[in-house]
């Protein structure tokens, strides 16, 4: 009987994990099913580009060499090891890779648009396309997504009046040089920045701040944060108070050894015992780690112990400018930055490299498929205390 591996979600982490497993294991011994709501891989880091009318290259998930099931996950029963879709289909697994990722935070107001998904980006694209000259756009949220969205919109549509609302200082996690560059770019693009400002209400044509200030907004873009998919919190898996699955260094659930979690859905510790942040930079190495650990446990190989660390943060500031903020292994800003056109090219190469990595999960290395050991199922039948 084939060992059944089900991967939920085909973002960067899920798609890479599925593709890497397909190249680590023999398909006559392992059945790998990838469950995703869309048939194509979505470059989530480019959704601000989609919102401004740019087209992205289609990337069909069927090219990954796994069985693709286009469906939405409704529930996971970790005791029965069954995944249920919204259509009522049931998938039984021996090993589960949970990579459902995150979505726009649950606090998004009714009249605000989101950029955490392709449907959201497409709705925003259509709305922006209908704005007349001097139309007002307010981006709420001063993090990476907010800064990238505001600068992309302002550059693509110089006829619009774009504002950016940040609860704290603009780019407060960046180095002084990084913060100064982001401010210069925003000023050059005519973006009105509202710092140390909290939005308390979003209406159809305005936002209202905590001090009662009214900011005109024909379009409001909500980028205040992300929340993980709620499926995991409804299971018996050990999760954090925000619903992220707690995993060990191999991305294996600390409560259910047949379950692995990668990407935004996983709570994993990085250097300095600091949790890895939700990002593509975290999800990709987590996927490598999980896939290689699963393959090692099933084939009697050596478990991977690659360190999960950071090198830089890449920020798009439109198509012609950017910021590369160099960071420590535990993601704290260093003084050094790269800016301008060179940084924009650097970020573009990073985005292309991430998409290429989904289609080439072994990073161009030779494919070495290994056979399962006769006792590969022992890790699941020897008790939940196995880590």
TrEMBL record:
State the Pfam families in the record.
Pyr_redox_2 (PF07992)
Q: Where is the FAD/NAD(P)-binding domain?
A: 4-291
Alphabetic keyword roster: FAD, Flavoprotein, Oxidoreductase
What GO molecular function annotation could you give as one example from this UniProt entry? NAD(P)H dehydrogenase (quinone) activity
Biological process terms from the Gene Ontology for this record are:
aerobic electron transport chain
Which SUPFAM superfamilies does the record cross-reference, listed alphabetically? FAD/NAD(P)-binding domain
Region annotation (Disordered) ranges: 367-387
Q: Which residues form the signal peptide?
A: none
The protein's name in its UniProt record: Oxidoreductase
Q: Name the source organism.
A: Virgisporangium ochraceum
């Amino acid at each position: 009987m084939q060992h059944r591996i089900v991967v939920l979600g085909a973002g960067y982490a899920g798609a890479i994990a599925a593709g890497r497993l397909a190249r680590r294991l023999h398909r006559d011994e392992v059945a790998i099913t990838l469950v995703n709501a869309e048939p194509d891989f979505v470059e989530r880091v480019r959704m601000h580009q989609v919102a401004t009318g740019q087209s992205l290259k289609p990337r069909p998930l069927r090219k990954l060499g796994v069985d693709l099931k286009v469906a939405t996950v409704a529930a996971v029963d970790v005791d029965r090891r069954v995944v249920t879709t919204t259509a009522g289909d049931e998938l039984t697994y021996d090993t589960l890779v949970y990579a459902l990722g995150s979505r726009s935070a649950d606090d998004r107001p009714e009249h605000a648009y989101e950029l955490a998904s392709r449907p959201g980006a497409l709705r925003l694209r259509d709305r922006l396309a209908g704005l007349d000259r001097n139309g007002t756009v307010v981006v709420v949220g001063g993090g990476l997504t907010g800064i990238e969205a505001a600068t992309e919109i302002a550059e693509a549509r110089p006829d619009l009046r774009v504002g950016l609302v940040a609860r704290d200082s603009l780019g407060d996690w960046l180095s002084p040089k990084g913060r100064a560059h982001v401010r210069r770019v925003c000023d050059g693009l005519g973006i009105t920045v509202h710092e140390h400002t909290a939005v308390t209400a979003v209406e159809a044509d305005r936002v209202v701040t905590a001090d009662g200030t009214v900011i005109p907004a024909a379009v409001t873009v909500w980028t205040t944060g992300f929340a993980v998919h709620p499926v995991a919190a409804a299971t018996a898996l050990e999760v954090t108070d925000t619903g992220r699955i707690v995993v060990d260094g191999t991305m294996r659930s600390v409560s259910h050894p047949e379950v692995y979690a990668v990407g935004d859905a996983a709570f994993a510790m990085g250097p300095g015992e600091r949790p890895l942040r939700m990002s593509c930079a975290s999800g990709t190495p987590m996927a490598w780690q999980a896939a290689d650990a699963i393959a090692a446990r099933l084939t009697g190989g050596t478990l991977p112990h690659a360190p999960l660390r950071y090198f830089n943060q890449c920020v798009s500031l439109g198509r012609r400018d950017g910021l590369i903020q160099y960071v420590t292994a535990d993601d704290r800003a260093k003084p050094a930055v790269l800016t301008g056109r060179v940084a924009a090219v650097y970020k573009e190469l990073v985005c292309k490299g991430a998409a290429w990595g989904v289609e080439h999960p072994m990073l161009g290395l030779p494919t070495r498929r290994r056979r399962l050991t006769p006792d590969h199922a022992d890790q699941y039948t020897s008790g939940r205390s196995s880590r």
